[in-house]
């Protein structure tokens, strides 16, 4: 899942398609770039500060690490950051050389490939890669783990990723896996946030989170501070509420923000420390959305059509894609990745006893629902934001997000919405074909224009 505050593009020409307009991005999101940079710089200095370091993959469990005063590396965020800065290729190439299939999750392949580069040899000057190679400069700063924790809903690749990491560190780093089971929704009383299955699995995950605090106590020699967890979750809950309030403002036409603004806003609710900064961030985002509505200003100039983006983000192409849709007067207003994840139900959290509500928010990752419930929630979002069409990003190496996309597209068509598919990936740019998306987006816009003329 992954997650940087600002994606940087290569110094190449911007996409020329449609009217040439660019996306009108929220200025408030720039503060997120500073927060993300501060987070990484703090992480790079963690060992010098005497902190233990946890490598983890999966859902948004950093408040537990923050409360226990350990540093954390979110594997997906790390790979997404390398991809957004276009520093992922060397790691992916080394994975290819060692036989890791190119269709393995590119988050995992980037992170594993980095380990296969043998950074210690680079530092010692005995590698075929120079230590001043800008492509690996950032990788050299990453501190090794003292613990590995996996907390992946829905994704089997996540567990295998951590198992390979464990092996590459010689099976010497203690590892814990938290099982977050699927919500199949097959029982008679099943539904969104309700039913026997929901209650059972909420408690099951919460019990494991408590066990995780014991695991951290064992490997740090310190007692876990639940009061500090409550404090951190107070900030997280407030930030999540502000985020949802700002998202709801996008029912306005034109929408004051786009899916791509919410993409670059993931870090504060996914892996940054739970403190006042993330509240301040979303206060700024909310205020700017309100100001834009008052001025009649949209994320897309002359917004004509409103789209839903299904699938993971292509971190190499965040700005590129934002401009591409803006150029055809189409605002991507919402998406499954942004609008159905990341503390989506903050009211479930009791800050005085937050663990159960945290477990429940981890369970409702959209891919973790059975298809009927998940698609029903998507349709509610599409109705709410008056969506005209759906853009299905079939991320080549993320089966967890793509498996259900034909069902989602069929549902969209039954409700009178256009749907297009384009292939790309989360962190491997080579799977993305710009000309293919151009042709399909042009066809969608022509179909939407024809429908509008016939109305």
From TrEMBL:
Family: Belongs to the FldB/FldC dehydratase alpha/beta subunit family.
Natural source organism: Paracoccus alkenifer
UniProt keyword Metal-binding present: yes
Keyword set, alphabetical order: Iron, Iron-sulfur, Metal-binding
Transmembrane segment boundaries: none
Protein name per its UniProtKB record: 2-hydroxyglutaryl-CoA dehydratase, D-component
GO MF: iron-sulfur cluster binding; metal ion binding
InterPro entries: FldB/FldC_alpha/beta
């Amino acid at each position: 899942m992954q997650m940087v505050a600002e994606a940087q593009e290569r110094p190449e020409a911007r996409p020329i398609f449609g009217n040439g307009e660019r996306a009108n991005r929220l200025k408030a999101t720039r503060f997120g770039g500073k927060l993300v940079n501060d987070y990484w710089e703090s992480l790079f200095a963690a060992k010098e500060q005497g902190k233990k370091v946890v490598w983890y993959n999966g859902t948004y469990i950093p408040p537990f690490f923050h409360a226990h005063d350990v540093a954390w590396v979110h594997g997906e965020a790390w790979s997404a950051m390398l991809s957004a800065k276009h520093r992922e290729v060397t790691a992916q190439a080394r994975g290819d050389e060692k036989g890791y299939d190119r269709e393995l999750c590119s988050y995992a392949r980037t992170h594993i490939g980095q380990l296969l580069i043998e950074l210690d040899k680079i530092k010692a000057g005995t590698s075929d890669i120079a230590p001043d190679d800008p492509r690996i400069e950032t990788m050299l700063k990453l501190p090794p783990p003292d613990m590995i924790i996996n907390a992946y809903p829905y994704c089997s690749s996540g567990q295998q990723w951590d198992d390979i990491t464990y092996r590459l560190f010689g099976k010497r780093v203690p590892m814990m896996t938290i099982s977050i089971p699927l919500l199949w929704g097959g029982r008679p009383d099943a539904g969104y946030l309700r039913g026997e299955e929901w209650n059972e699995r909420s408690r099951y995950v919460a019990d494991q989170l408590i066990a995780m605090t014991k695991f951290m106590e064992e490997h740090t020699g310190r007692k876990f501070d639940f009061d500090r967890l409550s404090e951190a979750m107070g900030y997280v809950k407030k930030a999540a509420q502000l985020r949802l309030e700002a998202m709801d403002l996008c029912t306005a036409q034109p929408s004051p923000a786009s899916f791509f603004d919410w993409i670059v806003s993931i870090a504060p609710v996914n892996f940054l420390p739970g403190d006042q900064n993330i509240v301040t961030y979303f206060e700024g985002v909310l205020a700017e959305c309100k100001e834009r509505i008052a001025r009649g200003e949209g994320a897309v100039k002359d917004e004509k059509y409103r789209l839903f983006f299904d699938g993971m983000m292509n971190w190499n192409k965040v700005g590129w894609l934002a401009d591409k849709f803006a150029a055809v007067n189409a605002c991507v207003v919402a998406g499954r990745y942004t609008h159905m994840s990341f503390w989506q139900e903050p009211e479930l959290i009791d800050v005085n006893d937050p663990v159960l509500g945290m477990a429940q928010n981890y369970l409702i990752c959209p891919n973790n629902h059975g298809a009927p419930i998940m698609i029903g929630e998507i349709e509610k979002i599409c109705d709410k934001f008056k969506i005209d069409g759906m853009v299905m990003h079939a991320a080549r190496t993320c089966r967890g997000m793509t498996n259900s996309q034909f069902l989602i597209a069929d549902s969209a068509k039954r409700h009178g919405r256009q749907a297009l598919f384009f292939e790309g990936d989360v962190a491997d740019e080579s799977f993305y074909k710009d000309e293919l998306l151009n042709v399909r987006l042009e066809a969608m816009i022509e179909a939407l224009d024809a429908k509008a003329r016939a109305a």
